[in-house]
Amino acid sequence: LRIKPLTNDDVNCLSTRFQRQVITTNPAIPNSIIVQGEKKQVFSYDYVFGPESTQEEVYTNAIVRLVENFLEGYNVTILAYGQTSSGKTHTMGTADNSSISPDSKGIIPRAMETLFSSMNSLQCKNQKFSIKVSFIEIYNEDLIDLLGEGDMEARSQVTIREDSKGNILWNGLQEIKVNGVEDVMSHLARGSMNRQVGATEMNSKSSRSHAVFSVIMAQQKYVGSSPTPPPSTPPRPSTPSRLSDSSRIARSSSNLNLRMSRRFDEGDWVTVTSKFHFVDLAGSERLKRTSAVGERAKEGISINGGLLALGNVISALGDPNKAKHVTHVPYRDSKLTRLLQDSLGGNANTLMIACVSSSESNLNETINTLKYANRARNIKNSVSINQEESGWNDLEHLQSLVLKLRNEIKSLK
Ligand code: ADP
Ligand code: MG
Fold this sequence. Notes:
- By secondary structure, this protein is α+β, with helices and mostly antiparallel strands.
- The protein has one domain: Kinesin (3-Layer(aba) Sandwich).
- Helix content is 33%, strand content 21%.
- The strands form 3 sheets. Strands 1, 5, 6, 7, 10, 11, 12, 13 and 14 form a 9-stranded mixed sheet that branches. Strands 2-3-4 form a 3-stranded antiparallel sheet, covered by helices on one side.
- Helix 2 (55-72) crosses helix 4 and helix 7 (253-262) crosses helix 12.
- It starts with a strand and ends with a helix.
- Adenosine-5'-diphosphate (ADP) binds next to helix 3.
- Magnesium ion (MG) binds next to helix 3.
- Belongs to the TRAFAC class myosin-kinesin ATPase superfamily. Kinesin family.
- It is found in: Cytoplasm.
- It holds the Pfam family Kinesin.
- It comes from Gigaspora rosea.
C-alpha cells in the first residue's frame, strides 16, 4: 500500500476542510494503517509506504527481490491499482523517460537498471540473454499495440490465445529486441505518448485505460557439472535448427558419433523464458464521480468492467471461504483478466500496489481500494521456473543422446 502525499495541485483544488489527512500510520504497528472515517478501521498489508516514502524506498523494499526472481527465470507481475490521481503512474514509472531525475524514477526504469547490470555482471557471464519488450493498452475492451508502427487501422489485430500448457500467448503484438536501459526507456516513452488520454473532471491528464508494459527474457544457462562450459557457448539455438539435407542422408552411426563428440555437453544447457508485466490499471473510481456523459461514460463503464472482472477473479482466488468451493475463475469476463490469466493465481510472482490518497475528499474510494487490496492479498500463486533443456524437442538430438548414453553404460559395465 502506498499513500500519496498532498501535492500542490491537490492543495489548490481542495478546500481546506477536505485536506484533512484521514489515513495515518502507527510506528508501533508496522505495515498497518488507521483510517479515521465515521468509524475507526485498521488495515494491514505486506508493506505500507507512507506519504513521505521515496521511490527508492518502494523499490528496494518491495521490488528488488522480484527482479531477482525474474532473473532466475520466474514470471513476475506488478499491478498498480487505485483511483485516478492516487499515484499509480508515478509509482510504476509508466510515463518516465530517460531525462527524468534519478530520485523521481519509478519502478520500471529502476527494475531495468537492476536487470541489465545483473546480466552484465560476472555471475552471469556463462549465460546468454535475449530481452524483448512490448507495450499494450486495453481501452474499451480493444487491445492496442502501443509500440506498433503506422496507422491504428493498418496495424495487425492483437489476439489472446492459450497453449496446451496453459500459457497465455499474445498474438500480433510487436515484441522489440532491446540492448540496454536507454533502449527500453525510449520504447516506454514512445508507447506512453500513444496512450489514450481523456479529460474528465477528476484529472485532466489521467489515462482512462489499462497499460501493460512487458519484458520478455530468454536466457540460455549452463547447468552442467564441469566448472567451465564448453567453449562454443551455447551449442544450439533455443529452437533446434534442422540439419541440412546432405547431413540427413549420411546417417550412419559413425556419423552420429562425430556429431556427438562435437556437442557432447548439450544437455547441460537449458533455455529459461520469463515474463515481467508492469500493469498500470485505469482509475478505480466509480463512474458517477466523474460526471461523464456519452463516449466518456462508455469508457467509464467498460474500464470499470475490466476492474470489476479483476475484482471477481481476485474474489474467486483469494477469498478463503470461497476458495474451497469455487472451481470456475472468471478470467474470460474481460480482456484484462484474460491477458493476465497466468499472472493471477497462476505461474507468476504477483504484487499489487494499492495507491491511495490520504485526504478526506477521497475517503470512499480509498476504503474501496483498501478492501480490494486486502482481498488480493489472500491469493496464493504457485510458481515454477520456465525451463526446458536445449534440444528437448529435437528427435535427432535425442537419438544421438541415447547412443551416447548406451556407449557410456556399455563401458561402465
Ligand atoms: P494516477 O496514475 O494514479 O492517476 P499519478 O501517478 O499521475 O496518478 O499521480 C498524480 C499526480 O501526483 C502526479 O502529478 C504525480 O507526479 C503526483 N504524485 C503521485 N505520487 C506522488 C508521490 N509519492 N510524491 C509526489 N508526487 C506524487
Ligand atoms: Mg496514471
